Amino acid sequence: MEIFFFSLVSHLFLFVLYWVFPVESVFLPNLPALETNPSFHVFDQIVSSVCTKSTRKGHLANGSNNIILNPTFEDELSNWSGKGCNILLHESMEDGKILPLYGKFFASATNRTRSWNGIEQEITGRVRPKLAYEITAIVRIYGGNVADANIQATLWVQSQDINEQYIKIAISQATDKGWVQLQGKFLLNGSPLKVIIFLEGPPPGTDILINRLVVKHAEKAPPPLRPFMKNEAFGVNIIENSNLDDGINGWFPLGNCSLNMEFGSPIELPPMARNSLGMQERLSGRYILVTNRADTWMGPAQMISGKLKLYLTYQVSAWVKIGPGSTSPQIVNVALSIDGNWVNGGQVEFNNESWHEVGGSFRIDKQPSNVMVYIQGPAAGVDLMVAGLYIFPVDRRARFKLLKKQTDKIRKRDLILKFSSSKANNVSGAFVKVEQIQNSFPFGSCITRSSIDNEDLVRFLVKNFNWVVFGNELKWSWTEPQQGNFNYKDADELLDFSKNNNLEVRGHCIFWEVEYAIQTWVQGLNKSDLTTAVQNRLTDLVTRYKGKFRHYDVDNEMLHGSFYKDRLGKDIQATMFRTSHQLDPSATLFVNDYHIEDGSDVRSSPEKYIRQILDLQRQGAPVGGIGLQGHIDSPVGPIVSSALDKLGTLGLPIWFTELDVSSANEFIRADDLEVMLREAFAHPAVEGIILWGFWELYMSRENAHLVNAEGKINAAGKRYLALKKEWLSRARGYIDVQGEFRFRGFYGTYNIEINSPTMKINRTFVVDKGESPLAINIDL
Ligand SMILES: *[C@@H]1O[C@H](CO)[C@@H](O)[C@H](O)[C@H]1NC(C)=O
Ligand SMILES: *[C@@H]1O[C@H](CO)[C@@H](O)[C@H](O)[C@H]1NC(C)=O
Ligand SMILES: *[C@@H]1O[C@H](CO)[C@@H](O)[C@H](O)[C@H]1NC(C)=O
Ligand SMILES: *[C@@H]1O[C@H](CO)[C@@H](O)[C@H](O)[C@H]1NC(C)=O
Ligand SMILES: *[C@@H]1O[C@H](CO)[C@@H](O)[C@H](O)[C@H]1NC(C)=O
After folding, report:
1. Which residues of this protein are catalytic (predicted)?
2. pLDDT band at residue 759, thresholds of 50, 70 and 90?
3. Residue 429 CA: which ligand 3 atom is closest?
4. Residue 566 C-alpha to ligand 4 middle, in angstroms?
5. Residues in Cβ contact with 217 at an 8 Å cutoff, skipping those fewer than 6 apart
């Protein structure tokens, strides 16, 4: 998904580091503008650390667990040294304008001539592998005519095989105005020979000031509470007078537009809401006509403060329409202003005068004091019509029964085990135990070069997944960070690892269409050089790995970026597909994009995705699969399945390629994950599900892990394992007089055991995908 990354400091080493700049979601700080270009950043980028934004208030760390020696410089500069620069001790600077925040002293890293110069301390032996550590530093910058600069904490790790690694563990914007707190978490694998922690980052000439550094074993999170959710008013609309039975009471115009009631809107609920609420609900046919709209954000609004409950997932639904006179497509967005933050309740884009469904979902995990819902979006002067706005909490589990039925229909097969015996034994009446040992459906995870150094993570991976995808190691920015400077080592090692562990591999990705994901040297090429570089990238990568990757994401996120298209013309995307296919006809070529399945992003609606795929096919691109990244929040089954149904009409396999769900409450996270997994597994068009990691600190999204950094499986992890178990069939019984044993089971590998006084067998057999009953002969 979206990430910012920029190449850091060029260390003297072969290694080029990238840093993720997490922006969880973008809220409009002030009412009530429309976020017309909504960019929800979730990240494709994986590093072995997570860092949080700086705060100016540090809370005092428990010094006794601190593995840093002389952390507040009470002992002057002992244990510290300069990395390529000088360090100095201070009680104050600038005639007392700069004073320590804690204790009596601070230090500066000065005479810095490279951005990687800074202050360092060796922590070998004091930092232990596989334990999660948190770091907090109190820092600021000084001098060099720089007001703000990023300071980064980095570990330099030398391992047994003399590999050097740089692990970024925290980054924060520091200023010359005051101290800020730098915070992050990390985990070390293996048994490093030497570990040094250092601060770096600001441009040469700017000093790094440090007042205190604490690195200690991360505190265990308090046991999460399962939110109480009994007797909730699921399905009950919280909007007052949705159907205008009472004129436009309860509604007010946001801005100086005018609201009037009219008649003639649909009386059916929009499909996604109908799926949640049932057919019997009817609308009145009355709608709100909004005229005199002087700005995009103007529309009907209603206060719903006090009506939202924590942790419930709310589905949003309405019919919307625009008045005549607009020539370009218009966006309509159901927006919530939750204590001044913009929350997206769904958006839709269209350019004709039909009624359109708008739908989405949201959830709150902090009790707000002020909540307003409003409908906005079309250009000033364009009339807006809104009918049947419903916001209701969804009982997401209520749908599972239906999904189980669908799953049973599409993921299982009737089986007839036919026993025969050359020894003329009478086989009937023997007791049979059939146990599925593996479901052949692809369940995968993202891995990274550093994550596979963690043996515990690998054990969980190999036991519970059969596919993988590499986080960054195949991306062009990774394999050729500077022009002509190739690094295929990490991808090679990950491929070997996958092969050795019988894991199938998706190739992610050959190109990535979004500008910020493109390395500097590529951005600097002129048209003819870029054409050559693109051709070389295709030839180098796809030839090198011919037959190795089962899938390729050919050009990631074409609905969200147009770097290559803008520079090389529309046909370049189809060319990438065509050339990839010529170079490796065995790989299935995917499109891959995000926010397709949640109604939240008009740039990537299912309709737009379909149009893009058809366009590519028309240009001869052999598109073989549809990738839905699946970085999703507060999923609602009928919304997800609506997108799958639409995309399913293309007849191409759909894969969830980067699925992750994020909630600080792990029970809610478990529910979100279950919604997504069940929807995907129950849908006939879906042929694989890849998670974007599962281990804390090896994921790009926070609060998305299934296993914590130190190996504890949380509620979301347990839910995943329970589903995997549910999707294994078992059967017990006696062989009938025909010498047969029948049951219905999931596709995959089975073990059959007969353990009677006259017969002992233990065999495996495989059930391939197919609709007709499958007879399997078992000769005893
Ligand atoms: C309505 O508000 C817009 C700005 O929000 C302003 O330009 C316009 O003059 C206002 N119209 C009336 C009739 O108040
Ligand atoms: C309006 O556009 C939608 C797709 O956005 C389409 O399904 C519908 O048929 C169109 N209606 C008319 C009257 O053209
Ligand atoms: C096989 O054994 C079962 C009872 O175990 C019996 O009902 C059946 O008639 C036997 N069949 C033959 C062919 O002997
Ligand atoms: C593109 O840049 C290369 C060198 O960077 C130069 O040799 C070439 O002439 C340029 N081509 C065009 C069309 O400007
Ligand atoms: C049957 O074989 C499987 C491995 O194929 C093994 O795990 C299982 O323990 C065996 N069962 C018996 C009763 O030997």
Report:
1. 658 (nucleophile)
2. confident
3. 5
4. 18
5. 65, 131, 132, 133, 134
Domain annotation covers residue 102? yes
Testing ligand 3's pocket by substitution, the residue of 421, 425, 426, 738 carrying the most ligand atoms inside 8 A of its CB is 426
425-428 long-range contacts (CB < 8 A, ≥24 apart) are 425/758, 425/759, 425/780, 427/735, 427/739, 427/759, 427/780, 428/734, 428/735, 428/736, 428/737, 428/738, 428/739
> pLDDT class for 64, splitting at 50, 70, 90?
low
Give the chain's domain count.
4
Alpha helix positions (H), 480-590: 489-500, 520-523, 527-544, 563-568, 571-583
| 449 and 419 part of one domain | no
Work out the pLDDT band at 190, boundaries 50, 70, 90.
confident
Q: What is the pLDDT of residue 98?
A: 96
Residue 346's CATH number: 2.60.120.260
Residue 247 inside a domain? The answer is no
Where are any strands of DSSP class E within 692-769? 730-734, 740-746, 748-755, 760-767
Ligand 5 site, CB within 6 A: 751, 753, 762, 764
CA distance linking residue 422 with residue 52, whole number of Å: 69
The C-alpha angle 465, 467, 468, rounded to 5 degrees, equals 105
For residue 608, the ligand closest to its alpha carbon is: 2
Centroid of ligand 4 to alpha carbon of 533 (angstroms)? 13
pLDDT of residue 22: 26
Lowest mean pLDDT across 125-134, 463-472, 544-553, 554-563: 125-134
Q: Could you give the residue numbers annotated as active site?
A: 658
Q: pLDDT-derived band of residue 635, with 50, 70 and 90 as boundaries?
A: very high
Do 695 and 552 fall into the same domain?
A: yes
Ligand 4 atom, smallest distance to 527 CA: 13
The β-bridge relationship of strands 467-470 and 443-447 is parallel
Ligand nearest to the CA of 526: 4
Residue to mutate, 737, 740, 754, 756, ligand 3, most ligand atoms under 8 Å from C-beta = 737
Pocket of ligand 3 (CB under 6 A): 426, 428-429, 737
Ligand 4 pocket by C-beta < 6 Å: which residues?
526, 528-529
Helices (H), 91-217: none
- Calculate the alpha carbon distances from 459 to 171, 234, 271, 454, 699 in Å: 31, 40, 43, 9, 17
What is the residue range of 293's domain? 252-394
The mean per-residue pLDDT over the stretch 174-193 comes to 92
Q: Are residues 363 and 419 in the same domain?
A: no
Nearest CA to ligand 1 atom 1: 256
Instruction: Tell me, yes or no, whether 655 and 544 share the same domain.
Output: yes
Q: Residue 460: give its domain's CATH number.
A: 3.20.20.80
> Which of these three, 363, 394, 425, is where a domain ends?
394
Ligand nearest to the CA of 761: 5
Note whether 67 and 137 are same-domain residues.
yes
Q: Are 142 and 176 in contact (CB under 8 A)?
A: yes
The closest residue, in CA terms, to atom 8 on ligand 5 is: 762
- pTM of the full structure: 0.88
Is the pLDDT at 449 greater than 60? The verdict is: yes
Ligand 1 centroid to residue 256 C-alpha, Å:
6
In a domain, 662, yes or no: yes
Q: Are residues 280 and 168 in the same domain?
A: no
Please report the pLDDT score of residue 29 as a whole number. 26
- Give, for ligand 4, the residue of 525, 528, 532, 567 to mutate: max count of ligand atoms closer than 8 Å to Cβ: 528
Is residue 223 one of the residues assigned to a domain? no
Q: pLDDT tens-digit profile of 168-183?
A: 899 999 999 999 999 9
Averaged confidence pLDDT in the chain? 90
Q: Verify that 377 and 294 share a domain, yes or no.
A: yes
Task: Return the percentage of the chain with pLDDT > 90, whole number.
Answer: 84
Q: Residue 415 belongs to a domain with what CATH number?
A: 2.60.40.10
The whole-number average pLDDT for the span 755-766 is 89
pLDDT for res 54? 35
Q: How confident is the model at residue 21 (pLDDT cuts 50, 70, 90)?
A: very low
